[in-house]
Amino acid sequence: MMRLHPISTAPHQNTQIHKQALWRYLPWMIAAAVVFGFPFYWIIVGSLSSNTAISTGSIPLFPLHPDWMNYLHAWKYTNFGRQFLNTLIMALSVTIAQVLTSSMAGFALAHMKFPGRQTIFIGFIATLIVPFQVIALPIFVLMADLHWINTFGALIVPTAVNAFGIFLYRQFFLTIPESFQEAAMLDGATPWQVLWHVYLPLAKPATVTLSLLTFIAEWNSFYLPFLFTETKSMYTVQLGLVAFQGEFSTIYNLLMAATVFISIPVFILYILGQRAIVEGIATTGTKG
Amino acid sequence: MVGQRHLWWWAMLFLLPAVILTLVFFYYPMGYIVWLSTHHWNGLSTIKPFSGFSEYTHLFQESIFGQVIRNTVIFVVGTVIPSIVIGLGLALLVNRPLPFRSLLRGISFAPYLVSFVSAGLAWVWMGSSNGLFNHLLGFLGLHPGNLVSNPTYAMPYVIAMYTWKMAGYNMVLYLAGLQTIPREIYEAGAIDGLKDGWTQFRMITWPLLRETTFFVIIINLIFSFRAFSAIYVMTGGGPIHATTTLVYYIWRLAFVHNSWGQAAAASTLLLVIVLLLTVGMVRYFTTDATPH
Predict the structure, then answer these.
(1) Disulfide-capable partner of A105 in B18, B29, B60, B208 (CB 3.0 to 4.6 Å)?
(2) Three-class DSSP labels, chain A
């Protein structure tokens, strides 16, 4: 059984910080902050610069005359409004589908007894190992045969199940006593009602974790929409960004502006659900 | 009490959506890809004649295939090791009671949140002839020019970007691992004379992070093998195939050259490599595992 510990703020070596120790680690902290953080600052500076400054490489370290119009131009260029909507529809649908399929399967695997239970569980987990690129070609053929290419069907249905979600819910449901189920069923509830009204509300942390991670992954996904969409009106934001590079490869200031507004939803979700996201990632590497 | 048989039907019903989707979108494609690898197909024709192992033979005879395998090994080794080492270093650093450490955690993790497309395009810009990195290298007297169009620098540059993006992810995994080590072990170790940081790390922390390291390696291997979008947007596999890895090559075979049989053979090869590596890792980490 797995119990997740939040990334606690209590250190192991709970000694007081000696000034000496601080001076020893400060250079490393500054170096790390610069290496990991500076590109973000530079992207924002680039998004506010003129294209002449970018192509001549004469961008000032601090943008004294920021050109906010870059954002408006970037937004208009490749129909980002439509692409934001497409991405939102795709990401929300996949998230809802994964929560449903994962919670149902996770509940069955945690609290119901049937032959082959272990085999089915392993069968799900095995899917996590194989890169999507290996199985993408047959799925592409299948989508083409179904005439689903360039539709939301192709963007949503192939990713409607996620073994990580099943794993997450199974582990979480195992921590909820089986007596809850028995008591509810003595009152005449069906297993569906038990799941929906008793177990899922208790598994809110698992739902939040899975939802946030899935939404962010879908928002950032590239390969699947890249293969399964054809027209700009079906593009997702990541494809919109690439189309940008092809057509306006030298206009880096608008490209950087687009990069900024495409990343905003993900950063907002991260700030809102920091703990769930970090715990979810920690779960990926925690033995169940 | 509801009968067991009744419950059995419910269990099947609950599993049905997940099982059907997994069969249709995972196990069927796995079987199909292996089947297709022994058939010749251009992606369009209705007939797919049996071709034995000739698709594999053709694949191995391709002039750039050796380079593709070499690129893949360089990319995977070159990204997995540094991003794990840097991730572990970051985790050890921000696990200490230092001021601003949660800010540093956030900053180091931020690259993981942006998409590979965004990060890749931003790095293309920073690596361009008049870009940031050329300015910085200029202070050292180096003028490599556009990094992504230089056959020598393209692969190291893509690897650098990938490492920048993944180190924070590994930091989170290692932080979770560090949290599971009880403080008492360090206190007991201190009594036995394990006091300085490096000895503590070598004798206590690293051995106890074994399970974490095992998962970190597997997850990073899988991630690195599937890396496509960064390469697609940064270099397009070039210059002169310098950054064409196996997944990129598979995409090109299928969607640019319409050699679906060969693409299937390459996919099967990738599948075998990933499975062998995973099984190998599991065996290595479970046979002589220290008991917990």
Answers:
(1) B18
(2) CCCCCCCCCCCCCCCCCCHHHHHHHHHHHHHHHHHHHHHHHHHHHHHCCCHHHHHHCCCCCCCCCCCCHHHHHHHHHCCHHHHHHHHHHHHHHHHHHHHHHHHHHHHHHHHCCCCCHHHHHHHHHHHHCCCHHHHHHHHHHHHHHCCCCCCHHHHHHHHCCCHHHHHHHHHHHHCCCHHHHHHHHHCCCCHHHHHHHHHHHHCHHHHHHHHHHHHHHHHHCCHHHHHHCCCHHHCCHHHHHHHHHHHCCCCHHHHHHHHHHHHHHHHHHHHHHHHHHHHHHHHHCCCC
Q: How much is the pLDDT for A3?
A: 42
Instruction: Please give the pLDDT value at position A13.
Output: 46
Q: What is the reported pLDDT for A60? A: 82
Provide mean pLDDT across the span B279-290: 78
Please compute the mean of the pLDDT values over residues B17-42 and round it to a whole number. Answer: 95
Reported as a pLDDT band with limits 50, 70 and 90, residue A87 is very high
User: Cβ of A222 and B226 within 8 Å?
Assistant: no
Write out chain A residues lying below 8 Å of B12, CB-based: 114
Of B2, B172, B232, the CB nearest to A185: B2
Q: Determine whether the interchain pair A100/B17 forms a contact, defined as Cβ–Cβ distance below 8 Å.
A: yes
Q: Which residues of B touch A107 (CB under 8 A)?
A: 14
pLDDT (0 to 100) of residue A61 = 85
| pLDDT per position as a tens digit, B183-241 | 888 888 888 887 788 888 998 999 999 999 999 999 999 999 999 999 999 999 989 99
CB contact under 8 A, B96 and A13: yes
Chain B hits for A156, Cβ within 8 Å? none
| Amino acid (one-letter) located at A240 | G
The pLDDT tens digits of the residues spanning B81-100 come to 999 999 999 999 999 888 88
User: Is A116 within 8 Å of chain B by CB?
Assistant: no
ipTM of this predicted structure: 0.92
**CB proximity A191 to B under 8 Å:** yes
Q: Which residues pair with B50 in a beta bridge?
A: B39
pTM given for the model: 0.91
